[in-house]
Write a structure and sequence with these properties.
globular, single chain, Arc Repressor Mutant, subunit A, 3 domains, mainly alpha, 3-stranded parallel sheet
């Protein structure tokens, strides 16, 4: 069966072909074309379009196309289910979902930058996801070194628990974390809970659990996305930037991802929001 999607793939548009060939149709072939050609070419060649809006194989709510294929084809392989939040986190800029998500995004972006041919990129990407699958199936409990880093973090975690056990005040780490996020939100497009936990010397599990108590009842990922949408609204209101430029300036992986998240938070697409501003 033929499958077709947008050109210049990075995460979902390589992860999905890997999943299809390994668990759905080993003889599947994949076509990458400019966005506006996906539907016409799909109809002409009898191919299945995926990872674009208004088709069956696409994003649903907070899940990506990789998640939909797992659900649609009843894939219950344990290693694939471990991979799912990593792919989702990398593809939707929610690196708090899995510690490996930021690394997957970085490697995928670099791979796409180095390889201009989409079919060659897919071939290399298949090796990447084969490796990730092997890690998930056989190696995920193996540590790279025997350094006592995890024990140190646990000690820090216990220290913070003890210090804040009887306190209802905003803890010092929360104040410091808010300042770091405010300072870096415009310049660091890859803020991650793991990276911040190392900066603060607070265990990432503790940060993840306690974060919403001091940040508007939002998870780390939702809070960062809200700040980026707030910035996007400012850019739409006070600048002449295009939607593509605003998506880049606010840290979204592409305009499609930006549009989806913007609509989720404001109830309107960026283009409609901008048109209504102009009318005013």
């Amino acid at each position: 069966m033929k499958w077709i999607t947008r050109e210049r793939p990075k995460i979902d548009r390589i992860a999905c072909p890997w999943l299809i060939k390994r668990f759905v149709d080993k003889d599947a072939t994949f076509i990458y074309v400019p966005f506006e050609q996906v539907i016409p070419r799909a109809e002409a060649e009898g191919a299945i379009p995926f990872d674009i809006v208004d088709v069956e194989y696409t994003h649903y709510e907070d899940q990506c196309t990789f998640d939909y294929i797992i659900k649609k084809h009843h894939i219950d392989d344990p290693a694939v289910l471990i991979m799912a939040p990593i792919v989702r986190g990398a593809d939707t800029d929610r690196h708090d979902l899995a510690s490996q998500a930021a690394g997957l995004w970085a490697i995928s972006a670099g791979l796409a930058y180095n390889e201009p041919d989409d079919q060659a990129l897919l071939e290399r990407g298949m090796m990447l996801y084969d490796a990730l699958y092997s890690w998930a199936k056989y190696l995920r409990h193996i540590k790279h070194t025997q350094q006592p880093f995890e024990d140190q973090l646990i000690d820090i975690f216990k220290k913070f628990l003890q210090q804040e056990k009887d306190s209802r005040k905003i803890p010092g780490w929360a104040k410091e974390l808010k300042e770091i996020i405010q300072d870096q939100i415009d310049t660091n497009l890859n803020l991650s809970l793991k990276g911040l936990s190392e900066t603060l010397q607070v265990h990432p599990a503790y940060l993840s659990r306690e974060f919403s108590k001091y940040f508007d009842d939002l998870s780390f990922g939702d809070y960062i996305r809200k700040l980026r949408i707030d910035k996007a609204v400012q850019l739409l209101t006070g600048t002449g930037h295009s939607l593509t430029e605003i998506a880049y300036l606010t840290g979204f992986s592409d305009q499609s991802h930006f549009t989806r998240i913007f609509k989720k938070y404001t109830g309107k697409s960026p283009s409609i929001y901008k048109k209504e501003l102009i009318k005013k």
